[in-house]
Every structure is written in C-alpha cells, then in structure tokens.
Design goal:
The chain is of the alpha+beta class and about 325 residues long. The chain is about 60% helix and about 15% strand. The protein contains eight helices and seven strands, in the order ββαβααββββααααα. Strands 2-1-3-7-6-5-4 form a seven-stranded mixed β-sheet, sandwiched between helices. The radius of gyration is 35 Å and the shape is rod-shaped.
Amino acid sequence: MGVNGFGYRVTGESAESVPIEAALACDDALVWVHLSTHAEEARAWLADEAKLDLHVVEALTATETRPRCDEFATGALVNLRGRAKEELSQSDPLASVRIWATKGRVFSVSRAHLVATDAVEAVVAAGSVRDPGDLIAAFATAITTDLDPVVAALGDSLDDCEERLSADHIFDLRRNVSDVRKQAIGFRRFLNPQRDALERLGALPGDWLEADDRVHLAAAADRAARMAEELESIRERSALMHDALSDLRAEQLDGRGLVISIVAMMFLPLTFVTGFYGMNVKLPGAQSPHAWQWITLTCAAIVLLVLGFFLRKHWFKG
C-alpha cells in the first residue's frame, strides 16, 4: 500500500533517507517514519504494515487532537501543534503532529504539512539526531522556534495599534485589534497544553530519553510557557484596547450629538420668530418698511444670546 511520507535510518552519526516500506525492515539505532496523509490511509498502513497496537493507531489518526503526552508500556504517545505551510482557520490555526516513540523507533503522522517538519528533517539528515528523544526534542524546538516570531509579531502589531489610538482611526483599529485577539486566543488554546505535554514527556522514566533530551524538552516547554504568557498578555491588552476604542467611539458620538443639539437649540427660537411673522394676519410692525431689518436683528440677537448661554455653561467642551 502506497502512502505519502518519508523514512530515515540513523546509524551512529550518519543518517540516510529510505522508503517508508524499507524503513520497517531496518535495525538501526533510530528509524523514523513520517506519514503525511489522511486518516484512513495512515490507519491502514500503521495497522497492516507497521503492525502497531490498535490503541496507538487510533491515537495517531484521531480526528481531533490537543497537545498531550501519554505513557505506554514501551514508549510514549505525544501530540504537538505547530504552524502549517498552508493557511488554516482562525479557530484552529495550528496543525497537529502525532508521534509514537519507542526505543529505536519513531512514527509520526500529520495531515497538514508543518513548517517544523522540514526543519526536523534537515536536522536528522545532518546527523544531529541519534535517538527518539533527540527527534521529539527537535520537533518541540522547531515548533517553538517557528512560533516565537509569530507571537512577537502579534505583540508588535498591537503596539502599533496603541500608538495610533485616536478617534480618526477607530474603524481600522477595531478590525486590526479584533484580528490580533482572535489569533492570540487561537494560539494560546494549544500552547498551554503543549507546555504541559512537554513537561510530562521530560519527566517520563525510560532509557530511550537521555539527559540532554530532557534538558531540550524542558527548554522547549519553557519557551511554550513564555509564549502562552505573552499571548495572554496580548489577549488582555486587546480587550483593553477594544474598550478604549469603544469609549472613543462613544465620545465621538456624544460630541456630534452635542453639536446637533446646539444647532437645533439655536434654530428653535428662530423658527418660532419666522413662523410667527409668516402668518397671514396683520401683526404689529409687519407693514413697516424696516420690518425685515428688525426681524433680522432680532434673530441675530437671539443667536448671540443662545451662544452666550452655551459659552457660559461650557457646553462646547462637552
């Protein structure tokens, strides 16, 4: 059965790429088989060709996965999340890689191609990976290294929004802040359990995890924790920024409403005067040749009185 993927065999300090079917027959210090395919193909190959335990096969091909680490009798099952090369939805922005590791053997499965997979493959091809612990540590390090600048960029984007905070950019800023907040929530949703999974993996007993592997896993877990804290800070800052923009919008509407009210108050008495003298009845002074000038002066005086009242009450300052 043909499936998409690749295999590596590691002997000493050298690594060689081999077909995944041939990798199963290798008896080296480390054999790594990575499948990049849909669940049904991976399930059939892992069960029929690799002869893995049914529980392991189901865990490697599960539809919904969160970062976790489960210990089995002969190894560990690790789920990690990292950025994919293709764009994913904002609600689920990180693709998963599921890893089954035992002494001398590592099987990994992913549906979307992770950016970290290429980095890990390069490290393996260079001969820097010698055991399953090195490989998982390489995955954890590559994922956190790839995510770190993305999280930093979210913080920088929010800094730019804070510098531009003004009533003139309300609509653009609200859209940008909303996008940053959604991304931060999506990333943080997986980074906290990923930190727990890496810490649990580093604490597992077993001779297939060396001391340097545990150090690298602890470092990756620390970076995941730091990114989770940064994302929580970004989420809180985004919420405060959204509230500030809402306040600016409310102040803007209040100011415009005040101007409209002032204009309406100024024209209200003028409307009364002009309407009064527009009636088809004889009014005092209506027949005077200076009636228009007197009415105009009266309206001007009313406007000045209303403006003087507003200025004295400081209504123009809101």
